Please model this.
Amino acid sequence: MREKYMWLGIFIVAILSGIAAVLYMAGKIKRIGLISGIGSTALRETCAILVVAMVAVVMYYAFNVTNTIVIFVHAAVFMLAGDLVGYIIRKASGAAVRAGVVDLVSIGLCLVYLVIGYILMHGVWETDYALSTDKQVGSIRIAQIADSHIGAGFDGKGFAKRLEKIQETEPDILVITGDFVDDYSMKEDMVDACEALANFKAKYGVYYCLGNHDMGYYGSSRRGYTGDELIAELEKAGVIVLRDESVLVDDRFYVIGRKDAGYGRDSRLDTSELVKGLDRDKYMIVLDHQPTDYDGEAAAGVDLVLSGHTHGGQLWPLEYVQPLVSENDNVRGYERREATDFIVTDGISDWAVIFKTGCKSEFNIIDVN
Model:
């Protein structure tokens, strides 16, 4: 329930921020160029808003509503910061600072910032973790990805290229911790991505747990296939789909895949029930899309929990805001509770925003010894 309120709050804040950014930038525009020479104040304001609206329409067709709001808000924040710096310079030195110059510099810096964010979103980086265990299980190299949202940042063939980079690390096992597809992921891209997984070489195979987007919030009408058809395509590719199930691998470690918490806590088993009867001398790896049950998983005594879902906060400073308003126990990176290691990946792509300014698209390589 808290997650729903969080998204409602984000939506309201985004809309209000977008409106405020449009009005602020319209106020800037009415003081420059031909518009500043118009005699009527009301007409100047109307013309300025129309200019901003036309820019917004162009950006909407080039991107989408979400990214248009993101760009406008960032531009307004940078221009506000420029105004503040200009004010401080005038007060400190008495030197005149031309507002137009400050605005151009601010927009230039914002553009550089967003270009870097675009690169961080559309590239892919390796993040390494080295974990140790007292259990006599030898060494395990785990590759983890999550939140590919096929079609959002790259299509099925783009996913295949990223798998080639992961393949170079020679993992023993590949795990996918949810949101493989999105509500707008087209069937062709989904099939291409599954075929890429079929060609992936991992000694112990590929394992997968469902994310909140995988089954589809709106049925199959938007993307042309159901969640069950997605699962069938994954299994056809040799991927082991785990829904509150465990598999013993090489008589050394378990892979335990949980149902997603987004479908209701009552619809899935507690971790303690999932590990009941398992050999405690074996290493236990839990795949859980949403990092919302750290206390329960630590109490169950599992060794490692891998999650996604948070996208690393996506845009700065949401990494620091998200823990305050969501149910997530962690937003990104590593944490240890009791004898359990927890890792949340920033995700290999994104859902709707084409920028990552608080993190980067990544896959994890986790070496357990």
About this structure: The chain has ten helices and twelve strands.
